[in-house]
Amino acid sequence: MNILIESIEQRELVDKLKNAGHYKLVETLLCNSKVYTKKGRLNKSAACRALGCKTKQLEDALAACREILHKEFDE
Q1: Calpha distance 64→59 (Å, rounded)
Q2: Region 47-61 average pLDDT
């Protein structure tokens, strides 16, 4: 039961990011394993290629996502 609740909460957070205009970013990070290194870290160059953006744009989008999630957990 606890796993189900956690899954629902995670889905709500993902939906919140998508609804805030970060749909393509979220889908790329969730569905494209090529944007991660073998150790599981984000490969910014690969993510930028997959998204068709510059590094600064990616960093700004990630910062915006962090801000959305920060607000969610501050409440």
Answers
A1: 9
A2: 97
